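To whoever picks this up:

The parser on our side crashed when reading a file containing two proteins. I've narrowed it down to the boundary between the first structure block and the second sequence. Both blocks are reproduced below exactly, byte for byte. First block:
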Amino acid sequence: MPAALKQSPARSEITGLLEEARNRTLLLVTDLSDADLHRQHDPLMSPIIWDIGHIAHFEELWLTRNLEGPIEFSEMPGMYNPFEHPRATRASLPIPPLSQMLDRLNEIRERVLQRLDSIEFDETNPLLARGYVYHMVLQHEYQHNETILQTLQLKQGEPYLPPRRSYRDDSINAGQWNGMVTIPAGRYSIGTDDRSEAYDNERPRHSIQLGAFEIDRSPVTNGDYLQFIADGGYSEPIHWSGAGRKWLAESGAFAPKYWNRDGDAWMSRSMDRIAAVNPDKPVCHVCFHEAEAFAAWAGKRLPTEPEWEVAASWDPVTGSNRIFPWGDTISSAKANVDQLRFDTSPIGSYESNVSPLGCYGMIGDVWEWTSSDFCGYPGFESFPYREYSEEFFGSDYKVLRGGSWATRPGAIRNSFRNWDYPIRRQIFSGFRCVRSL
């Protein structure tokens, strides 16, 4: 059923989703010591215990205090307010140990479920209509799961040892996804009018005129990127923008984050595993400037947001947009999402992960950089608070699309917009390229 037509969820469904989300959060941190939970493993990231506390207090705010309006705060005041306490300062906060945090999580959840028993999903209240506020809180926890995994990849001391890993047969033919897909000029629809799950920055659905272009059939692979490195990609300034050259000089980067040389071989690390760089996997942990430089070296460019979304969602047979490349229902069997592989997969591993126009892997594995600044769509209306999206509009941030292996299925769709600074590499980010026709 298309998202715009979704009905109000059953209370039992919401209860189950809240429980499942919490179980995943706690699974990710189950074997971490309080010292590891409280340590600031990198200045870019919060201590993991802060993320857990923030998850709890965001849930308390929106599923108890703000539930039926009027909205009191957008973020709970105090220790877990991200605007009061920037990431670099959070390690100095008096955050309690995990045992006390668990008590707080359980106490908040008990009150949330008590309120849920008596809630009416009133269509006149946009917070409650079709269960929007519950989906918002669930997605918030899912997104912090991915943030926690970024921190665990950066973890100081002993590498993070995942408590559980899923496996699948990756016998594939990556070569069939070489080349580019041609998308003709035309007027296309992007965005969504969904009010049950989509964030405000995904709305409203609107049409846009695009010129003809080609887009890579799959994300840029490690093998592709190795050619860029071997051809002096990091030392040839002609490929880099002015901002890119500045970042390159300041960072000293010579390869994607977590890559290192071992003699003549390139090695990469994902959590606790170090292995030779697999040429068939999508390149990961590159910033916008690296993606842009590669595209220039290849005689291409990065896609705009509308180009990316059309390639992922447009079905020329029906003349409509799909919510996911394969259809309108999310499934972790269709794409490398949901975290438990703890790594990217070779191109072609998920044979159903193909858009109607023939692009592989537009959901999962790696977030894909676009050339677009993060701005509101025509007719944008902030909801339910401007600090979620509107606070970040402008040229400081670039948009990423498609999710990664660390993204929960409930926090991704073709219309979902992520954003970050163009220098960020701790995110699970890659890209694909386009060429104008």
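<<boundary where parser fails>>
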Amino acid sequence: MFRLPNVGPWTRPLLRVGRPLAVLTVAALIVSSVSLLTAATSLSLRPVADTWVNPLSATANYGTGTTLRIDGSPKWNAYLRFDLGGPAGTLTSAVLKLYPNSSSRAGLSVHRVASTTWNEGATTAAKAPAMGTAAVASGPLTAGKTVSIDVTRLVTGNGLLSLGLTDNDATAISLASRESAHSPVLVVTAVYATPTPVPTAAPTPAPTTEPPASPAAEPTANPTAAASPSPAPTPAPSSTPKSPPTSADPVRAAFFYPWFPEAWDQSGIDPFTHYHPTAGFYNGASSTVVAGQIEAMQYGKISVGIASWWGQGSQTDAKMPLLLSTAAGTGFSWSIYYEAEGSSDPSVSQISSDLAYINAHYGSNPSFYRINGRPVIFVYAQPSDGCAMASRWAQANASHADYVVLKVFPGFTGCAGQPDQWHQYSPAVAVDHQAGRSFTISPGFWLATSSVRLARDLARWQQDVRDMVASREPWQLVTTFNEWGEGTAVEGATEWQSGSGYGAYLDALHNN
């Protein structure tokens, strides 16, 4: 999973966690035949640095400010730097989008700046990089209205790109900086040839030393999941309380991320993934999308989705009612993955409050997974966590109102405060077997900002699925259904599309 603290629920220290610009170095696919299609990829890049300089205060630095200021008299200039990466295709356009805080009839000019090594926190008027002579004018600016400027002719190569902004008259202009709510954005589009596997093949991306860029599909306000055949009907949920899973009746569950469309855009990378979901870069707030995802998981014999949950009032919390209502009558159930434990040490009172909230809002919903009437809560953890974490949870759940499944750590079996069960979440490892507790499998791990840590291998995955089933462990876990940023998804993608419409990784789960 992707876990960057203090940034948002879809970016975290992954760690669960850029890939810049429009490259598509597509990973090798094992297919029976390949065709070539010409495709256009667009990425929206935020600056990796920006600042402005003021000759009246030649040693002042404004790199952390929320505004960029330019003026013709005195001469205030602003600077932006973007990381374009290394596109494999042909650049077709580059559009700079700026948000003016003030209006100007003359507007501004955008210049190419040769230096790409200036420091945002150290650049001053006394040592500002020189502006290039090539420039593009913006036209008039209106306060509060984003302006789009075609700067294609200023983009002459890959890697780092520096741009300078100058005022076209003596009227000062204020612009939003990258530290503001309206960051500048450079939208880059490239055309390239991308290999497309035949649908009946079972593709597996091979690792590369350079992570490729993601595709250019634009998310829609209400995308529709890719059409696919319906799985066999699943019995409607029973009102009889479920017993704890046993080796005779194991539960197959998958970790699920309801943080899209927010998580498609992270660290200045959009989309934040190396892969191409067959449903497109979807909006997880769409009931159509969620219904398709539940259908896909049931096709893979997954009966429980463990939904990432970042606390009361969070964006993931806001998605829970939709997940539960969409599952109604399908036989599919949802649990919660309590994420706060992975980036902090919630107090006993905070955990108690969160459990009470979950129970009051979701615990009695027929689509929430319960064991003997107790809502099932999975809990993430930090690598440094130990028995003190288990003790906090034991105290917070002293009434045993909830069935708690903690993440393992060294020495967990010796802790005095034991939960109801234990699991492992380590998606960079193909298989984790906690004897008598859980068996977890991962298809691969390729974080959007790094090289491959666990290469996808369909044959290995198929064997891992068989081993998981043969283990008869009570919890049989898949990491993950749709953590696209870390490249651990088994949800359908063009890289592993198959004749079923669900993709080769869900096919393997379906067949075992």
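After patching the parser it read the second block fine. Residues 247 and 439 are 11 Å apart (CA to CA). Residues 1-39, 193-239 have pLDDT under 50 and may be disordered.
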